[in-house]
Each structure stands twice: as C-alpha cells, then as structure tokens.
Amino acid sequence: MPHDHHDHDHPHALLPPEPALRVRALETILTDKGLIDPAALDEIIDTYQNQIGPKNGATVVAKMWMDEAFRQEMLSDPMPSLEEMGLYGRQGEHMVFLENSDTVHNLVVCTLCSCYPWPLLGIPPGWFKSDAYRARVVREPRKVLAEFGVEVPETTKVRVWDSTAEIRYLVVPQRPKGSEGLSEQELAALVTRDSMIGTGLAKEPQS
Amino acid sequence: MSRVHDMGGRFGDGPVDPEDNATFEKEWHKRALAMTVAAGAAGAWNIDSSRHMRELLGSKDYGRFSYYEKWMAALADLLVDRGLVTEEELKAGRGDGVSEMAHKTLRAENVQAVLAKGSPYVREGAPPSFAVGDRVKTRRPARNETFDGGHTRQPGYSAGASGEIVIYHGAHVFPDSHGHYQGEAAQPLYAVRFTARELWGAEASEHDEVVLDMWESYLEATS
Questions:
Q1: For chain A, what is the mean pLDDT?
Q2: Is the dihedral of CA B64, B69, B70, B74 positive or negative?
Q3: Which of residues 120-159 of B touch A (CB under 8 A)?
Q4: Which CATH superfamily is domain A52-197 in?
Q5: Does B43 touch chain A if contact means CB atoms closer than 8 Å?
Q6: Which of B67, B97, B117 is the last residue of a domain?
Q7: Does residue B137 sit within a domain?
C-alpha cells in the first residue's frame, strides 16, 4: 500500500534528476522488462497530438445549437450518442453538458489534479493544470475570468464545477449573435477550447 | 489534514497565464503521458491509487516539479511499490530481465481499441439515500476515514459546508477505498451545489456557486 516517504527515499529519487533523462531512463527500463512497447507510445502520442482534440467537442456543441432533439439527448443521456459518434473513451466515460445562458455562466476546474474530458477536448493545456488556476478559480472565478478577458455581468451567476469524481463536464457556450444561417461546420469553427471549459466565449462570426 | 495537491481556495499563486496554452510544452512531456498510459496496462494499479501516489509526493517535490515531472516521479514510485521494477533497476537505468507481467503489455496495434474502450466507473450499488433538492452537509474534517493521510476526493475547502443535491450520478467506485486497493466499494455519487458565500464568506459574490461531486459517505442530511 502506498505510504509516506521522506523525499530522499522515494524510489523516484534514484532516477536521473534532469526530467528528459529521467523519462528516457524509465522508458529504457520498462522496455527492457517488456512492460511497454515503444511503438505503442508513438501510437498514444499520435492519438492525442493529431487525432483527438477540441474539434471533437466543437462538433458536439455545434450540433446541439442546430438540432433540438440532439441537444435534449446531450442534456439528458449523452453517452449512447457520443459512443455512436466515436466520442467515447478514456477520461470521457461519464459526460455531463452544462449550457451557458444569460443567467448562468459555467466554468470547469479540477482543484485536486487535472481531470479533463479527453475524448472531447484532448489533453489539457498548461494553464488548466497550473496551481494558480486550480487554487483560485473556485474562490475568485470572476477575477480569473478577467485574466482570460471574459467579463460576466454581476447579475449572471458564475457556477464553477470542481471535477472531484469521474464525471467529466463540458460547457456549452452561448451561440453567438449573427451566427444564424451558418452551417454546422461553420458553427463548429466558432467553438473554441476555452469556451468549452468556460474561460472563453464562442467566437463571433466574421461578417 | 490536507496535502499539497488539495489547493482549492489557496492564496498566493499569482495570476493565471492564458498564454500557457500548450498541451505538450516539451517533447518529453509526450513520452511521459504515453508511458503513464501504457504502463497502466499491467493492471498493477488503478486511477485512484495512481492519483494517490502523485499526492504522496513530498510537498517540496510537488511544488518544484513541473506537471509531467510529477507524473514521472509517481510512475517510478508506483512501479517499485507494486513490485514491477526494483530500486536497483531504477538506479542502474536498465531492466534486469523480462517481467512476468509482460504478457499484458499494451501493443501498438491495440492502442486505439483500448483508449476508445474507456473504463466506466458506474456500478450496481446501494440505492441513493438523497434525492435532487435535498439539503446536505459535508463531513468535517475532509479526510480518508480508514487510512490516516489516505486518498480522498473531498477537497478541504468543502469541509463542513451546507449545500443542495443537484444531480444524482448513480453508484460510483469509491476512491477512498479503491485508492488503497481495498475494493471498489461503490457508493451513490451526487453533484452538490454550494453558494460561494457558504464556502468563502461575505467577500464572494452573492450570485455565484461551486458544484462538487461527492460520494454519499462525505454527506449527511441537514435541514
């Protein structure tokens, strides 16, 4: 069972201190032991670098804006459709969608670690994992939003969701004004990663 | 009672830098993520015990390590703790013979299927004692009830606060047990809404709220 060690007798202290060398040493050891397949690492990296990212979430949001039946499904029981769309997977097993409106602005954090909906947004950016974001956004969300250039009216409720379990939350930003008549694909291009975490708004269409 | 990772509400961290945008800032970050995912295939640990190993990093290491350095340190500690790698191997920088768990190793051709399969945490479990709309109070102190300093997913800032159930998520694997290899012990899981003022006092906006997912044993009924 895991237990406390003094810093100097954590096993990790036996590895080289320089991070890149440390990673290489671990990879060598695990490859020698047959516990990892280096080609599998390449495949995992390719998946999260090139295949899975915020475009997945943007597709869902745009479809929710366009298609009322789909929107209702995403708000009540999203997993069957997400699975059908190939948007189910590790760190996205239990999705809940949070719609922003004139009265509520939702914002997502994981104060205890860095939980994030991988199948819909990919791997989180640096700031999402930073101590400053994790520590502050639950206590002073409006100040943090201002640092992202987002001003929420005083009477609009800011609701911060702290992902303490395996539920993964995705914010559905408000559909921007002037986006009537756009195709689903054009709408998806307005949905930024930050707008699905709640630290941004959807982009306005260029006229 | 708390550990360094439990930082919600803490002062002193300075502004958030929205330009710190990269998913992988350095090449080795990619390797660190991929290795952590791949090494999990041996089944020697679970998501809760791996989180706990990161939490067990000393507060000095936790503070000075970058994000993926924490992952790498915890991975090395897990490998030794679970008997997959020896301290001598870490010291030598090479593995001494093939592991008896090597038959479980994730192969490149199976990566897509394994990632897409996910790992759901909902279980058959006891029926919920609370319903949406019920008023509840969280336990105080926030701590693992069985293991001193053990894993829990109740943040310290939520201890002793009164709120309202807003979602029932079903019965979920209980991290306070699972993180210590003591079984899944699924419990009803709820999203609980607190007013910002309940958590932070009169300085907070009267309109704002924080919602946390809480297992049933973190909660008691209140009026």
A1: 95
A2: negative
A3: 120-122, 147, 149, 153-155, 157
A4: Nitrile hydratase alpha /Thiocyanate hydrolase gamma (3.90.330.10)
A5: no
A6: B117
A7: yes
CB-nearest to A141 from B24, B93, B208 is B208
Which range marks the domain in which residue B33 is found? 27-117
ipTM of the predicted structure?
0.97
Nearest to B115 among A89, A125, A138 (CB): A89
Is residue B105 domain-shared with residue B187, that is, in the same domain?
A: no
Residues B174 and B103 in one domain: no
Q: How far apart are CA B117 and CA B49, in angstroms?
A: 21
Which of A90, A147, A163 comes nearest B18 by C-beta? A147
**Over residues A25-29, mean pLDDT:** 97
3-state class of B202 per DSSP? Answer: coil
For the cut 70, the answer to whether the pLDDT of residue B158 exceeds it is yes
Residues of B in contact with A45 (CB under 8 A): 30-31, 33-34
Helix H, strand E, coil C: the string for chain A is: CCCCCCHHHCHHHHCCCCHHHHHHHHHHHHHHCCCCCHHHHHHHHHHHHHHCCHHHHHHHHHHHHHCHHHHHHHHHCCHHHHHHCCCCCCCCCEEEEEECCCCEEEEEECCCCCCCCHHHHCCCCHHHHCHHHHHHCCCCHHHHHHHCCCCCCCCCEEEEEECCCCEEEEEECCCCCCCCCCCHHHHHCCCCHHHHHCCCCCCCCCC
For residues B143 and B108, membership in a common domain is answered with: no
Query: Are residues B106 and B31 part of one domain?
Result: yes
Contact B105 A11 (CB under 8 A): no
CB-CB under 8 Å, A135 with B210: no
What pLDDT is stored for residue A6 in this prediction?
A: 54
Q: Is residue B201 part of a domain?
A: yes
- B22 located within any domain: no
